[in-house]
Write a structure and sequence with these properties.
Length: 111
């Protein structure tokens, strides 16, 4: 559509769409290390990210700050996801290192 409207294939077309293409699925619930994002989560992430852009436009903030805000949101999402994964790994490691209660241990031996 942009090529038809511009009348030529410009190398800069779509440059503004690359960062949101990465940010939206991650905010929608998909992890950088694999996972599954829901459609609802991605739609909510789109509404969230577009409301930030619209708000910044309403406050007459220069357009390049919109990309900086999207990058900051992506960075926060990655840090939060990594922290969540680290806590899950630590909880699993702690649960694995604790001895079984006596009743469970007896059931395991008798089975």
């Amino acid at each position: 559509m942009e090529t038809i409207r511009a009348g030529a294939a410009l190398p800069t077309l779509g440059g503004d769409w690359i960062l949101p293409a990465f940010v939206l699925p991650i905010l929608g619930g998909s992890s950088l290390r694999g996972g599954s994002a829901s459609i609802l989560g991605t739609v909510l992430a789109t509404v969230f990210l577009m409301s930030i852009g619209t708000g910044m436009g309403a406050m007459n903030v220069p357009a390049y700050w919109n990309s900086a805000a999207q990058a900051a949101v992506l960075l926060v999402a990655v840090v939060v996801d990594e922290g969540r994964r680290r806590r899950q790994r630590q909880a699993r490691a702690t649960a694995m290192s604790q001895p079984l209660p006596p009743q469970v241990a007896e059931e395991a031996v008798s089975a």
